[in-house]
Amino acid sequence: PAPENLLEVNNIEVIYNHVILVLKGVSLTVPKGSITALLGGNGAGKTTTLKAISNLLASERGEVTKGSIVYRGEAVSELNPAALVKKGVIQVMEGRHCFEHLTVEENLLTGAYTRSDSAAVKQDLEMVYDYFPRLRERRKSQAGYTSGGEQQMVAMGRALMSRPETILLDEPSMGLAPQLVEQIFDIVKAVNEGEGVTFLLAEQNTNVALRFAHYGYILENGRVVMDGEAKDLRENPDVKEFYLGMS
Ligand code: ATP
């Protein structure tokens, strides 16, 4: 049987500042339990797509003017980001966004601020440290003094502390050395397999994303130009030529 789709984006248009049409009819589906990658170059519309889903466009004067976004069969376009978190969908923004003056552990605990079950929160903190041993070592450090890779881990760990069903992960590889990128994706895979968390991730690094993802969508200029199983996209001559830097 076909896998159940957790998230469906149907033909959405996004306009910024009432005039700039940035998404020109984007559709995608995210199967439950998958890692689905949203690929494409700078400015293709990846971040805009994620923000449309988590309803974070308003603060940037953007709006979805057409189409629908459905999570577990329910239209969610009108929900604010907090309500979406309650439904189990959380976004990890591009550029990490840690609380720099808090310690690593305090940052992680902010991800559980709506929860009152302190024993379970403590258990989840251990779960996060098991996936990110580096964060356990650095737990007393002020987040602002940790490295870019560690801050990416903090941002992901904090998202995990809300026990999400789906994580929208924006550009996890940004600014990281290749070895660290590999490490971050290894953790994404481990969390996907270990906790059953579904991922929709935006990534410019097509190569690494298609090695770890199950499905991929390639965006160009606000449109999906190709999609399919990651293993098929990896073998596709156009993808090889234009996105994988080999022909
Ligand atoms: P990046 O890797 O740079 O984040 P992206 O694929 O995520 O690229 P978006 O950030 O979604 O692309 O941007 C898509 C287009 O929308 C770009 O042309 C960008 O200039 C434009 N854009 C993004 N944010 C705004 C905004 N707040 N107001 C107007 N235009 C915007």
Automatic annotation (TrEMBL):
Cited SMART domains: AAA (SM00382)
Xref: Pfam families: ABC_tran
Domain of life: Bacteria
UniProt GO molecular function: ATP binding
Family annotation (CDD domains): ABC_TM1139_LivF_branched (cd03224)
Family (UniProt): Belongs to the ABC transporter superfamily.
Protein name: ABC transporter ATP-binding protein
Species this protein is from: Paracoccus fistulariae
